[in-house]
Amino acid sequence: MSDNIEGKVVVITGASSGLGEATARLLSAEGATVVLGARRVERIQSLADELTGSGGKALAVTTDVTQFDQVKRLVDAAVETYGHIDVMLNNAGLMPHSPLERLKVEDWEQMIDVNIKGVLYGIATALPYMKEQKSGHIINVSSVAGHKVRAGGVVYAATKHAVRVISEGLRMEVKPYNIRTTVISPGALDTELVDRITEPDIREGVRKITNEMALPAETFARMVAFAMSQLEEVDVNEILFRPTRQEL
Fold first, then answer.
1. β-strands 9-13, 33-38: how paired?
2. What whole-number distance in Å separates Cα of residue 200 and Cα of residue 117?
3. In contact, 218 and 23? CB cutoff 8 Å
4. Residue 23 and residue 12: Cα distance in Å, rounded?
5. Angle between helices 18-29 and 41-53 (to 10 degrees)
6. Cα four-point dihedral sign 69, 75, 80, 81
7. 177 is an active site residue
8. What pLDDT is recorded for position 204?
9. Which residues pair with 143 in a beta bridge?
10. CA-to-CA distance for 145 and 93, rounded, in angstroms?
């Protein structure tokens, strides 16, 4: 698997826990250089130190993906430190489910800012470098919720559907520049997203599902590695996966 991973410079948002952390660990073990972005600087710096101590190359940059300048600083730091960027993994996301009638407007705005604008900012900052070097790979994270809507998760589903639309449009637009694009839509995974649901009854319901069937975050990391490891002329555009037991 490492044939097309070793030596690549990979920028990861939302790298302080869950999917981002698991992916950073796996890719580093496969020989990639990882540039870690997240708001929790202590977490990403600790991870970077751990990976570097194990013989890898890692850089931590404090990043709030709702701020364009901070995402630009993250990507610029990757290029300034390592000379180029090969992969942009737009992973940062929020999932504060609630029925629309509860009018959790602040939660809605946070999801739009992180799940949609954060992805756009990641694309906007990585794309100029990739266009210039005529190579690169942009990986965006959607969800099963981007394919199926369920009561209580309407706004989250809308943001994740938007990621799929953005990814498909991006795929068509970057063909002249030899850039690959992948959107990954996971089902139930064991991450901290559940803990950040602000409505206690919804949180407990989602946690029950998670406890029953959720896959470990490493499952997602292997999907990223699969898409990256293909020959450069192979463009894996979309991956949708679920726990075997998950019906939705």
1. parallel
2. 27
3. no
4. 8
5. 20
6. positive
7. no
8. 81
9. none
10. 13
Residue 209 burial (10 A CB sphere; 0-12, 13-18, 19+): middle
- Position 2 scores a pLDDT of 44
Pick the catalytic residue from 121, 129, 156, 177: 156
Flag whether pLDDT at 209 surpasses 80.
no
Contacts of 110 (CB under 8 A, 6+ apart): 94, 96
Domain ranges of the chain: 2-180+215-234
pLDDT of residue 208: 78
- Whole-structure pTM value: 0.94
pLDDT on residue 113 = 98
H-type helices in 83-117, by residue range?
105-111
List the structure tokens of 53: 């101590």
Tell me what pLDDT residue 1 has.
42
* Pure H helices in the chain: 18-29, 41-53, 68-82, 105-111, 118-133, 154-173, 200-213, 217-229
Q: Name the least confident of 100-104, 198-202, 221-225, 226-230.
A: 198-202
Sheet holding 87-90, edge to edge: 57-62, 33-38, 9-13, 87-90, 136-141, 179-186, 238-241
Q: Which CATH number fits domain 2-180+215-234: 3.40.50.11270, 3.40.50.720, 3.40.1740.10, 3.90.190.20?
A: 3.40.50.720
For the beta carbon of residue 175, count every other beta carbon within 10 angstroms.
10
CB within 8 Å of 181: residues ≥ 6 apart: 137, 138, 139, 140, 167, 170, 171, 174, 235, 237
